């Protein structure tokens, strides 16, 4: 038996049979289904044609998904298999069902493999942890996959594609056989889609309405919506939404949908078009709130858990604000799904409607021996006849009946969670129920109970693990329990309660139970099961229970009169007032408790699935993903009326067939925006066949009408301008708030950092990661620098700020995340937060500042999938106050894409800036180029390093070789810093003394500047012919330790020895402007220059060729010192000439 193992939802073998039939060669054959996947039509003749059109694309997409998983199998989660057993369902050749026992998670070493199985997982079995694809198909263990149909903590129930042979081997066999389960992909959603496409007997009323172009689709039924009927249908809804401050387009969308619900003559599909920032979530929340008030049985679903949570949260905020009687009415709302995937523990505001929590709470309320019925009856008996209850208590102590003791132990173990055990001890129950929570404020009381329930669920989330802990500690616990029981038995008679103690303690215990049950029953039961009149009584009795408890305690503290008060004896002297108050409270409390005992009848349900179905059957609003809605396809399920699909444009049309076929559905409302990103599709073949297209988009293409939400409330007008014009044909208006002057924010100084900017990053370079995704590390550096400055400003001004960094490429996202590290938090609740995500991952999100890194940088104008208009739209519409777009302007303008239009538009609006115009960004880019070793880019004459240079700088080949060998980033930066300063005209005040002891011409011209304690930069002034004149330029020879400088000087002597006196004089001439030395120039036809001919000496051109051809050394050494310049030089003949100095 599998114990806690969950059973798979479907036994439909079709898709799995196909997957099992694929060999490794089939999986890697990208064209396996190319000839069978056809273009999905826009119209269909029959429902059967409609369903069939998705089948081969679904198969191909499953194939592509498996292929993608195979290519990254070396990084796949794995788990060692300890045993393989056939099950009772094992029926070859296809029914290959096995029970697999895995190595326990707690026995797995860190980093060894952490695969945690889930139902629907497709796994492979290998004899080694796979390091490459071939490890999945080894001679002794050919390719074999299996579908997980049931999962426990350390065991699986699987259906295998082939027989599994596995012998763990005898202990004496050192080379025992190994087996590993390797996760490939999860098939759950695709299996559910497959089942929906093959259902055959589903509700097709809505699907039939969307097969072809139908001008009546989306229109209201004329018979139902005469002026009289329509006004009756929407007038109440109009009153309900009046406090929500909806704009006209939002009101029209809500009221139009509400009117649709009243039609019983035809099925209708409504479309609500919600562009970015137009209040789509607010509109959906308002619509759902009205449906909740109408008790219209509605399913709300979305493609993702995030979208489902967002819709649920919006509704909950409206419901909580509008509540009149605490949490009454929440029982009509149910959110269900995988709690771990939803990360439901991070959403405490949804606990009251989350199905798993509700089931656990109601299991406690429904428990026969400790639940609602038992507790209210016990409380009534105690208040009606406390003397009799006390006598029964004394008799139990005397009898010490074993059966009674076992019953009490069972009651203790059930605690506050019914059939979910807490700790199995009386102490836990007493700690919960003996606390005086009656004085808690309502909010604190709720938190108290939620804390207990959540803690209990977390403790019991893994039943297998809990059982193992109990088994491991059994002996110790037995000994402890025996000692405790003996101690209690020995002390029980000595600790007999007095009547006053018994009444107070028992009443407090029962009262706390009742508080828990009452509040949770009116919270978690549907309003169809518990009326408002009953709820009012329940809320009243909560106050009375508090009053009775307080009076009982005060009488007991007064030390006398409790027996008389309990027995109704009025002659109690000065305690008459207290008696009357108690008597009145007790009488009313008993009256209401008896009333509630008659009115509230809880069902006799114990099992999880029974209570779950009970909750789903009675709820009015149900929230889940479109895929999870398959769980509502159960026999005897209460029919639904209305389907609402949020983010409908992101849902594959084939996946929407799951909820569209639910029993009873009459109408569907699709909310989305086809101008934003559609569903992701793995297969290129499927992408071309439009497999990712949504029903929403297809209906728009066919011309179906829709309600446009036409006012945006998110973006500053300068941000919304381009996307509104480019994607929405100027149909969207800016809301009043975003047009206010206060909405314009300046987080950094400078026009570059206004509300909307394109920042041209010209020195980037495209690189590829292991997964062939593109990144641009120079743009990464710019993003990091901007974020750092935003953080500094936020701290300095104490201004709360949220920043989003977006890129279309995963590699760029990872690179930015790595660069930023853990310095900034993504928590939006703190003063400064940074979220780094892909464009696809940011859909639906928004931040104060958005920085987009477009990445692409090439001369071809190639931008790949960056050109996708829907992806561009999403990226450009996430910012509230500032949108800064980083990119290579030249590449984007040459791309012939939407980004070309954007760059040109930015120029026309004077919003186009160059990153290197900002000194901080220029420094960040320089550092990035240094780290990337892109010296050819950085040392180019036109590079940002020399943007402010007064001197032209030339480099020898040896300099480039040495720079490429320097791995230390700091040393590289020091060299570049020196070069930048030298090119700007900065000079040291004195020349290095090392040249004092040298002979030769080079000792007169060479300059030495220290880079660090090991290396020195060596350079000279040279003469270059340029534009009919001669000009001084800097010639950088090498970076050397002191020990190798004489070798360089000796080699340069040959070159410099050929210089004429005139050339030497020009090399040492100096022109000073302020504190800077600037290059001197001479006309090319001057007499002095004419003397410098090839016959007399080296011509400038000959000099240049000799310099370019000279190769001096191979590698650098170590040690360095600083020296001063000589004041004179020696010519080739050895004569000395005074050094010329000219100031201009």
From TrEMBL:
<keyword id="KW-0347">Helicase</keyword>
<dbReference type="GO" id="GO:0005694">
    <property type="term" value="C:chromosome"/>
</dbReference>
<feature type="domain" description="DNA2/NAM7 helicase helicase">
    <location>
        <begin position="609"/>
        <end position="684"/>
    </location>
</feature>
<dbReference type="InterPro" id="IPR041679">
    <property type="entry name" value="DNA2/NAM7-like_C"/>
</dbReference>
<protein>
    <recommendedName>
        <fullName>DNA2/NAM7 helicase-like C-terminal domain-containing protein</fullName>
    </recommendedName>
</protein>
<dbReference type="GO" id="GO:0005524">
    <property type="term" value="F:ATP binding"/>
</dbReference>
<feature type="region of interest" description="Disordered">
    <location>
        <begin position="399"/>
        <end position="421"/>
    </location>
</feature>
<dbReference type="Pfam" id="PF20073">
    <property type="entry name" value="DUF6469"/>
</dbReference>
<dbReference type="InterPro" id="IPR041677">
    <property type="entry name" value="DNA2/NAM7_AAA_11"/>
</dbReference>
<dbReference type="GO" id="GO:0004386">
    <property type="term" value="F:helicase activity"/>
</dbReference>
<keyword id="KW-0067">ATP-binding</keyword>
<dbReference type="InterPro" id="IPR047187">
    <property type="entry name" value="SF1_C_Upf1"/>
</dbReference>
<dbReference type="GO" id="GO:0016787">
    <property type="term" value="F:hydrolase activity"/>
</dbReference>
<keyword id="KW-0547">Nucleotide-binding</keyword>
<feature type="domain" description="DUF6469">
    <location>
        <begin position="89"/>
        <end position="199"/>
    </location>
</feature>
<feature type="compositionally biased region" description="Acidic residues">
    <location>
        <begin position="402"/>
        <end position="414"/>
    </location>
</feature>
<dbReference type="Pfam" id="PF13086">
    <property type="entry name" value="AAA_11"/>
</dbReference>
<feature type="compositionally biased region" description="Basic residues">
    <location>
        <begin position="1125"/>
        <end position="1144"/>
    </location>
</feature>
<feature type="region of interest" description="Disordered">
    <location>
        <begin position="463"/>
        <end position="490"/>
    </location>
</feature>
<feature type="domain" description="DNA2/NAM7 helicase-like C-terminal">
    <location>
        <begin position="692"/>
        <end position="888"/>
    </location>
</feature>
<feature type="region of interest" description="Disordered">
    <location>
        <begin position="1123"/>
        <end position="1144"/>
    </location>
</feature>
<feature type="compositionally biased region" description="Basic and acidic residues">
    <location>
        <begin position="469"/>
        <end position="490"/>
    </location>
</feature>
<dbReference type="InterPro" id="IPR045529">
    <property type="entry name" value="DUF6469"/>
</dbReference>
<dbReference type="InterPro" id="IPR027417">
    <property type="entry name" value="P-loop_NTPase"/>
</dbReference>
<keyword id="KW-0378">Hydrolase</keyword>
<dbReference type="Pfam" id="PF13087">
    <property type="entry name" value="AAA_12"/>
</dbReference>
<dbReference type="InterPro" id="IPR045055">
    <property type="entry name" value="DNA2/NAM7-like"/>
</dbReference>
<feature type="domain" description="DNA2/NAM7 helicase helicase">
    <location>
        <begin position="246"/>
        <end position="481"/>
    </location>
</feature>
